[in-house]
Amino acid sequence: MKVNYGTKYSLPMLIWLTLLFIVPSAIIIMFSFMEKNQYGGVNPVFSLQAFKDLMNSAYFKILLNTIYIAVMSTIFTLLLALPSAYYMARSKYKSFLMLLIIIPFWTNFLIRVYAWIAVLGNNGFINQFLLKIGLIKDYIGMLYNNNAVILVMVYTYLPYAILPLYAIIEKFDFSLLEAARDLGASKSQSVFRILIPNIKSGIITSLLFTFIPAFGNYAIPQIIGDKNTNMLGTVIARELTTGRNWPLASAISMLLTLVTVIGVLVFTSKQKNIKKVI
């Protein structure tokens, strides 16, 4: 009699997901429907006050700003990751280039974010360089705005986008591009009609690896941004610490999770329906 070990093999993963995803999500959902405790935490009393507070137009603006920053970061990251991964896959120095991609992971994330202050700040490298060569007469405010947050997010998540693209492009048969050129296709036609459809799974993975962490990011807008660059992650942290409003923080977390899940479902559903672009 043949024994099916599928259930036993999947049990560790099921336990992992239950303990680290399902249970925390259930706790967040329960907290969002409870009453705020003035000293922090929640009172075990059913309440919809958190969702009433969430209806404030200020939170809607923060949601839109969060979506804008996450989408723009994802677009710019992918635009840089595609040619980078393609060059790596065709290069003779793949191992060395892979090492350069991995090197940033050797440094603490917060140190890398704070380093951008030394680059973009009023007394940073760029401003000092432009002042010395006479291109500007006063400092340019490059920090504490949406553009700075997007720039640092692109820098942070670029390796996460390059790696899955490189993995799929490396397996691509480049002779197909040469065959398309021999049959009269231009460079752009061969790329968009042959290469892109065959690496769409890598593109979808890169999109998800960039959009999801960017959408819920807390540290980068907190360090590089200001009050006008609020994102949902910073609001959640503020409500948990300063405001001590755990139900509202939980409600915002539910909103963040909901938008993220919708985004994932849209991207994955489109994976089967991506049309060839001429």
Commentary on this structure:
This protein has 278 residues and is mainly α. It has one domain (46-270): MetI-like (MetI-like fold, Orthogonal Bundle), CATH 1.10.3720.10. The chain has helices spanning 6-32, 49-54, 57-90, 94-102, 109-120, 125-132, 146-169, 175-182, 187-198, 200-215, 219-224, 232-241, 246-270; strands at residues 34-36, 42-46. Helix 3 (57-90) packs parallel to helix 7 (146-169), helix 3 runs antiparallel to helix 10 and helix 10 (200-215) packs antiparallel against helix 13. The longest helix has 34 residues, at 57-90. It is globular and about 70 Å long.
In short:
With 278 residues, the chain is mainly alpha-helical. Helix content is 71%, strand content 3%.
The CATH superfamily is known as MetI-like
Category from helices, strands and their pairing: mainly alpha
> What percentage of residues falls in helices of 4 or more residues?
over 70%
What is the C-alpha radius of gyration, as a whole number of Å?
A: 23 Å
Q: Give the ordered list of helices and strands.
A: HEEHHHHHHHHHHHH
Low-confidence stretches: 274-278
Q: How much beta, percentage-wise?
A: under 5%
N-to-C terminal Cα separation, in Å? 55 Å
**Looking at the structure, what is the overall shape?**
globular
Q: What distinguishing features does this structure have?
A:
single chain; 278 residues; mainly alpha; MetI-like fold; two-stranded antiparallel ribbon; 13 helices
